[in-house]
Design brief:
By secondary structure, the protein is α/β, with parallel strands linked by helices. Helix content is 36%, strand content 19%. Helix 4 links the parallel strand 6 (116-119) and strand 7.
Length: 340
């Protein structure tokens, strides 16, 4: 059995790329010969190091011929609808594409060849279904909850997300500005910002470094999975401002489409505080397994409340950890293989 995978964004090493490699891994584990189309520089080792994945059995080739000659084709859309030729074809949207004339006659004809449209969140699904006139299936991304574990906790507030304004508004600048207010009162805490710089770094990183000067703020560039695991394990709190200042209805692509790093932090028992927009609302239930926030004043108030209320960190970190278990790789594998 042969399977083809196409993702035009592999070099960004982001959540959608991890999703594609998790599909590849699930197919290999189910007996498929898997080919991933990639015409750029060798990338397999980079993917393994960033995501902590063993991609043995996954082959990288120049052309999968849109699935022609394969039993299965998993194709990540760039907003367009491809003409796929495998026996079973799956089209994946990792972002909420809109205003792209999705309901054209040509697209509707191409969709006849696609067995299922898959989205990474209900947030993405709502936009995609409306734009293309489809009824997509949500399969949440996997998190390796067996590898990401809590360690001896420190007074660290962590955020993990790429240093780029190319695709989304991650807004690390808001986290820095808010933390500078926070640490006036809580002087023994530090902020750690970690993320990739491979694609879309447009000078904003230098601005963040300048903004951080003189404060207990550390910036970690393009960390390996091993480094990320350690940071998750040590952090007591996870902050995210992704989507801050964005009109979610007008620019859904700029808010968090899902939020895989939030779940990774929760798996390590870090209490998440995420901006109340996009796919993040599907992960965090306010005051149950973390917190949602809309203003920086609210973020500060809720963070201070967590830290100063006896027993609250322990209770919420346990609930966060429990919630993260439902996003395991084994669950993801079952859902992907179930489509075949």
């Amino acid at each position: 059995m042969r399977a083809a995978i196409y993702n035009p964004y592999l070099e960004t090493l982001g959540g959608g790329e991890r999703y594609s490699m998790a599909v590849a891994k699930a197919l290999v584990n189910n007996g498929y010969h898997v080919d991933v189309e990639w015409k750029g520089a060798p990338i397999k080792k980079k993917l393994e190091e960033r995501f902590g994945m063993d991609l043995t059995g996954v082959n990288f080739v120049k052309d999968v011929k849109r699935g022609d000659g394969y039993e299965v084709c998993f194709w990540v859309s760039d907003g367009s609808i491809p003409t796929l030729a495998a026996r079973k074809n799956f089209l994946h949207f990792q972002g909420p594409f809109h205003d792209v004339n999705g309901k054209t006659l040509l697209n509707r004809m191409k969709l006849f060849r696609i067995g299922k449209v898959i989205c990474n969140s209900s947030f993405t699904k709502a936009v995609v279904d409306k734009e293309y006139g489809v009824k997509s299936l949500v399969i949440y991304p996997p998190v390796d909850v067996t590898k990401i574990k809590p360690k001896r906790k420190e007074n660290i507030i962590l955020y993990v997300g790429r240093f780029s304004t190319l695709f989304q508004s991650k807004r690390q600048d808001i986290l820095i500005k808010t933390f500078k207010r926070f640490c006036k009162e809580f002087k023994d805490w530090k902020l750690v910002l970690a993320g990739g710089i491979e694609v879309g770094e447009d000078g904003s990183l230098g601005k963040l470094e300048k903004l951080s000067l003189g404060y207990p703020i550390k910036i970690v560039k393009s960390p390996s999975f091993k480094e990320i695991k350690k940071l998750y394990g040590q952090a007591r709190v996870f902050w995210s401002a992704a989507g801050y200042g964005v009109n979610e209805k007008k620019e859904p692509e700029k808010v968090e489409h899902f939020g895989i790093t939030t779940i990774e932090a929760m798996a390590a028992k870090a209490v998440p505080f995420v901006f109340n927009a996009g796919g993040a609302k599907e992960i965090v239930k306010d005051s149950e397994n973390g917190y949602l926030w809309k203003t920086t004043a609210e973020l500060l108030k809720k963070t201070k409340g967590l830290i100063t209320t006896r027993g609250l960190v322990k209770n919420l970190s346990e609930e966060a950890h429990k919630s993260a278990q439902s996003y395991s790789y084994e669950r993801f594998k079952r859902e992907i293989i179930g489509l075949l």
